[in-house]
Amino acid sequence: MFKLPDLPYDAGALEPHISRTTMETHHGKHHATYIKKMNAILAERPDAPNRLEAVVRLAKDEGNKKLFNNAAQAWNHGFFWQSLTPEAQSNPQGELKSAIEKAFGSLDAFKDEAKSKGENHFASGWLWLVADSKGELQITDLHDADTPITNSSLTPLLVCDLWEHAYYLDYKNERPKFLDAFLSKLANWRFAEAQFQAARSGSGTWTFPV
Ligand SMILES: [Fe+2]
């Protein structure tokens, strides 16, 4: 059985970019429901692994869509809370900065590509910055509950939730404004740097709390 992890900051800490109401609903209702539904499925599965990452991979391998959708959404949201920060941060530093410049040309070019992919993503899903096994970066948008942790050669560094529940109360249908806020004000580059270092060293990437 998995528990809803606490937010790593106060629900109102991301205002004015994301309102307390959005965070309380998103975390306390949407995320909580995915975990509750997953736990109900796992209650019938005494053989299930005790790490959420393993549950997600098992559900994918088995083609168990109901378990996959709820388990992957539980994991993705846990990762999303880490991808946001209320702290005014400097831009990416060090090796991550170099990798972004190598992959996209510049931080601004990265933001342009991320915004374009996020804007043009049809319906629900997630916008990911990932590193491959060579430490090279790419932006990928995945549909519905899909997650890069089922691909052993990819390590997620950051994610933005593209489901309407992530932004509709604050931005209505204007997803581009939400993406601007994410890319310019909320993205947790210190977390992404730590993920990138962990990916390169082969251990220590973020895992869902047990
Ligand atoms: Fe969400």
Describe this structure in words.
This protein is mainly alpha-helical and 210 residues long. The protein has two domains: 20-83, Fe,Mn superoxide dismutase (SOD) domain (Helix Hairpins, Orthogonal Bundle), CATH 1.10.287.990; 94-201, 3-Layer(bab) Sandwich (minor pseudopilin epsh fold), CATH 3.55.40.20. 51% of the residues lie in helices and 10% in strands. The protein is built from eight helices and three strands. The chain has helices spanning 20-42, 52-62, 65-83, 94-104, 107-120, 168-171, 175-186, 189-201, and strands at 125-131, 137-143, 155-161. A three-stranded antiparallel sheet has the order 2-1-3. The radius of gyration is 16 Å and the shape is globular. The mean pLDDT is 97. Residues 26, 30, 77, 161, 163, 165-166 line the site of fe (ii) ion.
Quick rundown:
The chain is 51% helix and 10% strand.
Mind sketching the topology for me?
Layout: H1 20-42, H2 52-62, H3 65-83, H4 94-104, H5 107-120, E1 125-131, E2 137-143, E3 155-161, H6 168-171, H7 175-186, H8 189-201
Helix pairs in contact: 1-3, 2-3, 4-5, 5-7
The structure holds fe (ii) ion (FE2).
Fe (ii) ion is lined by residues 26, 30, 77, 161, 163, 165-166.
CATH architecture of the largest domain: 3-Layer(bab) Sandwich
Structural class, please? mainly alpha
Mean pLDDT: 97
Number of helices: 8
Stretches with pLDDT under 50, minimum 5 residues: none
Strands in their spatial order, largest beta sheet: 2-1-3
Order of helices and strands: HHHHHEEEHHH
Number of strands: 3
Overall helicity: 40-55%
Which ions and ligands are bound to the chains? fe (ii) ion
Query: Given this structure, which CATH class of the largest domain is correct?
Result: Alpha Beta
Question: Looking at the structure, what is the overall shape?
Answer: globular
**Main beta-sheet strand count, sense and barrel state:** 3 strands, antiparallel
First-last Cα distance:
9 Å
